[in-house]
Amino acid sequence: MNRARRLLITGGGGMLATDLHCVAEARGHAVTAPTRDALDVTVPGDVRAAFEAFAPDAVVQAVGLAVDFCEEQPEEALRVHAWGTACVARECERRGAAFVSLSSCGLFGDDVRFYDEYDAPVLKTQYARSKHEGERAALASCRRAYVVRPGWLFGGTSAHPRNFVARRWDEAHRVPVLRSAGDKFGSPTFTEDLAARILDLLDTDAYGLYHVTNAGGGSRYDYVRHIVDTFGLPNPVEKVDSSHHPRSAPVPACEMLENLNTRFLGLAPLPPWQDAIERHVRQLRATDPAFR
User: pLDDT by residue (tens digit) across 116-144?
Assistant: First the structure.
């Protein structure tokens, strides 16, 4: 049953937080979304003050650090993703609020297959380690906790630096040929669809672990190819291996997720990722003349 909530979103201004704020308000929820500068989730006193000021009955922890940054700064990764999650989860438990902790699809290995909630994590990166510790902290510290592992995220506005779809438009206007990895696999996921599913989960008392992605999966090359085709750009896309895009973090080869627990809960699958890209491109074109 849908009911109006007082929803606190940490990491305000981020890609997911922006879409979640909009979707939640459209559903009639009261929302506050302080930025990381306004609310440091790693300081228990600051977290408590935010609760006292707004009195949320649900909190979504959308604060997150970049994967390669975490590889270079593992202590900071644990401070934000694990300790910060514990700080917010403990306050939710104290106040009787529900808690949604955003984790990652990058917790598995190199076998190219869909991973479900019952597969054992394979923590190849410092990012994965810190996110997994955050999962454990959420579930241990709050009886009303949901842990959500999303796919490869895109969405928000064109200004969000992590909006993969918008950034490929920019790239296509800088270089004649786009090159994308054919040996990295995932499930592209629209933050607007993810936001709606988070709110669906909050309408249940089925606390626990959930994979939430748009349906299907593919390689990074497939992802980029569909973006270019949807925009109608003339640039060819060359399939390369991931050595052409060196990174600090040894990210797994496959981050495709099977959404078993939402299916068991009786929720309909989210639309295919290709459909989600097409909807987001239409949004960009409708709201930003630069994409027309």
Answer: 999 999 999 999 999 999 999 999 999 99
pTM of the model: 0.97
Q: How far is CA 128 from CA 18, 191, 263, 267, in A?
A: 24, 20, 25, 27
70: phi then psi, degrees, rounded to nearest 5: -65, -35
Nearest in space to 220 (alpha carbons), one of 177, 168, 149, 148: 168
Q: Dump pLDDT digits (tens) for 215-233.
A: 999 999 999 999 999 999 9
Q: Are 25 and 75 in contact (CB under 8 A)?
A: no
Q: What residue ranges define each of the domains in the chain, with the CATH number in brackets?
A: 6-291 (3.40.50.720)
DSSP 56-122: -SEEEE-----HHHHHH-HHHHHIIIIIHHHHHHHHHHHHT-EEEEE--S-SS-SS-S-B-TTSPP-
The CA distances from residue 224 to 82, 135, 161, 277, in Å, are: 32, 30, 16, 10
Enter the DSSP assignment of 21. Answer: H
Q: Which of 106, 91, 17 is nearest to 58 (CA)?
A: 91
Taken in order 11, 185, 158, 288, the sign of the CA dihedral is negative
Site of tokens 């999966």? 217
Q: Bridge-partner residues for 257, per DSSP?
A: 115
Secondary structure in 3-state letters for 33-58: CCCCCCCCCCCHHHHHHHHHHHCCCE
d(CA 157, CA 277): 13
